[in-house]
Amino acid sequence: MGKVKVKKSDVWIDMTPMSDVMTLLLTFFMLTSTFVKSEPVKVMTPGSISEIKVPENGVLTILVSPEKDATGKLTGEGQVFMSIDNTEQLGNTLTDMAGRFNIQLTPKQIETFKTEAMFGVPMQKLSAYLQQPSSNRNSMIVTEGIPLDSIDGGMSEFQNWVDAARTVNEEVKIALKADAKTPYKTIKKVMNELQDMDESHYYMISQLDAAKSAEANTYVRGGN
Questions:
Q1: pTM of the predicted structure, to 2 decimals
Q2: Would the pLDDT of 109 be above 90?
């Protein structure tokens, strides 16, 4: 008996719907993802059980770190750095500060400043700092920090930065981020600086406890 030949047919799968789905997923993640900014120093925030979130936009972040010597030993004082998430507002804040301290900056220096993830050098050193290449700036900023000492009995540079940011954006939110090992007296000094300016409400950035891996943020009333 002769063999029955089965007619072979090509299998063709339309991949267009899958390509559309992949494109939509990629677009979704690109639009909803937030990029973590690099920080001058590594900060390990204290634990918390709160899950209140810091706003994603219009935030002035104040970073306070434990100061370390060349061997990595804590010296007992923290350095203060800042960041503003809105690039245009960051540039306007810098222009305000340059006018207050009578500092001349070139357009190139201003653009360089706007690319910085965080800033934190004394105003008198800012121009020289912005002239340095990126690799030098990364190493220089670690040894600096925004001064907290008052100027001739008036506002400190730290307070001037906060005031300038508030002038540019009246609705700016303030978030304080500190290392778990930062001395309390340093945190208290920053809080006192804010309280003296009637900045009594701000976020305190922390981490969820070990049972959870997501980051949480606690909204606090300063000076209490």
A1: 0.70
A2: yes
